[in-house]
């Protein structure tokens, strides 16, 4: 790969443009091809860097002569152009793999079905507060490749999706984190859960004995995989239920870490983030910070002042004593499970979007206990109605965010919560989950 000269990039978004900039800097002949439209700000960057690009098509003769292809994570392997590339034996890799070849600083790779954005941002916060100049990239913020091209950091904290992991060959994080595994994106994995699980564990496949693998020891699927597969990295488990000899666990409502010679403790009630899932996110981030030799006082202080992530259980406004919460980032049922679990008041639940093979059964006990009305927001709500129609008396279908929020306001009484936690992808009515969350916040502010 290092000797390859023609670099073709599929997708002209953040990761594509960042890879193009790094590719040009490293002497590649670069071509960017996007089957959709490229945003104006990215076109300006491409023009400024004198990079060749096309949009709304894939010109085969300009793509199939590549030495290496970087595919943006949103493009499925079954798309016709990717199939052609694979047939021709042309390497198709992810931005993570491409950029990794040009660094000699450590990376922290964080993946999981849920919690990876919060864990990534919290980890980055802890390390930055500890005085290390780490970049924040991957599935979040400015492109990893773009930051590598600028070369300003002494390491990187990367949020990595399963799609990005599918495109790695040599990528080796010094510290890997797997927050949890639950069925997600099964439409991209032939509806085969095992394929998705294997994809997540690619994060540790190139690790060696002097690397670390941090994982949730309470997660049944993770435990099963570890029992049945060999792993070279040093394992660092965390758990809410078990006492661990070397790991992070809970005793007397206090987080206790025994992963280094010095024991670390932090009372749960001093964490800035609420909810059991966030205790786990804090444990994972703490493990990384300790391995990076951040001082205990700094870790404690940073865990207590972290501000949280936009679109993840974000309190928007309280109107007439009704709290509106934006959890647009909940794009699967497992994420929505965490959201409903942390609700302490009767909840009007806004749900729906593009179903990715959801099984709503796991939500049933929480819905019975906490939800008083459901507002469906999606083009096809049949599955949601079938799942909860016999459990919830009030179910209303809506076709826009403004309508959904107004409907929720009518259904809510003093002391209730209106929760947007869609459990689905957003691409039927919105550009992405950020757009969905921003529209929710705007609609709430317009009430």
UniProtKB/TrEMBL annotation:
Localization in the cell: Cytoplasm
Pathway: Cell wall biogenesis; peptidoglycan biosynthesis
Residue ranges crossing the lipid bilayer per the database entry: none
Key word DNA damage present: no
Any Pfam family hit: Mur_ligase_C
Occurrences of domain Mur ligase central (ranges): 110-289
Chain ranges of the Mur ligase C-terminal domain: 311-424
An example molecular function term from Gene Ontology annotations: ATP binding
Biological process per Gene Ontology, one example term: regulation of cell shape
Assigned protein family: Belongs to the MurCDEF family.
Protein name, entry field: UDP-N-acetylmuramoylalanine--D-glutamate ligase
Species: Flavobacterium cyanobacteriorum
The encoding gene: murD
């Amino acid at each position: 790969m290092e000797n390859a000269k023609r670099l073709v990039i599929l997708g002209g978004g953040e990761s594509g443009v960042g890879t193009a900039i790094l590719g040009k800097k490293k002497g590649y002949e670069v071509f960017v091809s996007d089957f959709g439209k490229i945003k104006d700000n990215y076109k300006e960057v491409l023009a400024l860097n004198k990079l060749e690009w096309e949009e709304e098509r894939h010109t085969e003769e300009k793509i199939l002569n590549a030495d290496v292809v970087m595919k943006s994570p949103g493009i499925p392997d079954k798309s016709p152009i990717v199939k052609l590339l694979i047939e021709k034996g042309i390497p198709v890799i992810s931005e993570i793999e491409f950029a990794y070849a040009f660094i000699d600083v450590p990376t922290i790779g964080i993946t999981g079905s849920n919690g990876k954005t919060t864990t990534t941002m919290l980890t980055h916060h802890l390390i930055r507060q500890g005085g290390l100049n780490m970049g924040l990239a991957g599935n979040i913020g400015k492109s990893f490749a773009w930051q590598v091209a600028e070369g300003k950091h002494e390491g990187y904290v990367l949020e990595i999706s399963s799609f990005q992991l599918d495109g790695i060959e040599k990528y080796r994080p010094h510290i890997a984190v797997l927050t949890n595994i639950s069925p997600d994106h099964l439409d991209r994995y032939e509806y085969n859960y095992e394929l998705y699980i294997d994809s997540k564990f690619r994060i540790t496949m190139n690790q060696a004995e002097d690397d670390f693998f941090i994982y949730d020891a309470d997660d049944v699927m993770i435990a099963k995989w570890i029992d049945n597969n060999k792993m070279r990295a040093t394992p660092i488990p965390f758990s809410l239920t078990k006492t661990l000899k070397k790991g992070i666990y809970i005793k007397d409502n206090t987080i206790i870490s025994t992963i280094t010679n010095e024991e670390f403790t932090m009372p749960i009630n001093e964490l800035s983030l609420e909810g059991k899932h966030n205790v786990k996110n804090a444990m994972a981030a703490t493990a990384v910070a300790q391995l990076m030799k951040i001082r205990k006082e700094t870790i404690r202080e940073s865990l207590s002042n972290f501000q949280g992530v936009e679109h993840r259980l974000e309190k928007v406004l309280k109107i007439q004593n009704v709290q509106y919460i934006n959890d647009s980032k909940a794009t699967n049922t497992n994420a929505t499970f965490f959201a409903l679990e942390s609700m302490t008041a009767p909840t009007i639940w806004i749900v729906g979007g593009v179903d990715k093979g959801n099984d709503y059964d796991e939500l049933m006990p929480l819905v019975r206990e906490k939800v008083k009305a459901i507002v469906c927001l999606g083009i096809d709500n049949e599955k949601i109605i079938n799942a909860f129609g016999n459990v919830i008396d009030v179910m209303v279908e809506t076709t826009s965010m403004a309508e959904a929020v107004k409907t929720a306001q009518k259904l809510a009484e003093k002391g209730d919560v209106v929760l947007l936690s869609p459990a689905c992808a957003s691409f039927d009515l919105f550009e992405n989950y950020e757009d969905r969350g921003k529209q929710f916040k705007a609609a709430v502010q317009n009430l």
